[in-house]
Amino acid sequence: MKIDARLNSHDISNAIREIAMYKARLQWRLERFVSELAEVGITVAKANTYVEYDENYINMGDLLEFSKDVTGDTNGAVCKLTVTGQPYTKEWRGGAAQVNPLLMAEFGSGAKAIEGHRGTFPNQHVAFLESWDWVDNSGIQHTSSGSEPSRPLLKAVEEMYRQIQTVAARVFSET
What we know:
This protein has about 180 residues and is of the alpha+beta class. Helices cover about 40% and strands about 25% of the residues.
């Protein structure tokens, strides 16, 4: 930014006004930048909220809510992303458990879980087996090895990282 000013009070006042306007535009762009980047992440996360469980895909998206809160401060802008999830009940003959849909989608369960996260399913007693049998409420027996994670948050962060320059170029080049 170039500001022409001579050493007189009128030109200095104009320069101060121009700097204040530039600062306000910059703050607005910073807030818009973090907001748009957050939207990229939310879109990717929402598209990856499924869980593969014994060759069936379960969409956890209806149980999850993604939101963002953008605030400006003296150092720029901050965007807080929040994911909240309503637990769902996984039922089988003789048992049931409340499952956190975000943990299940992000880390999986059983032998298919991300290393070190086999116990994300509550009340574990089969988490460290390679497979187990269970009977659904209709009396049908199933063999399971857990659920494959879809990694919605990891994919969101990776895509946000990839889009930083693209979003910044668009937001900061607009007049």
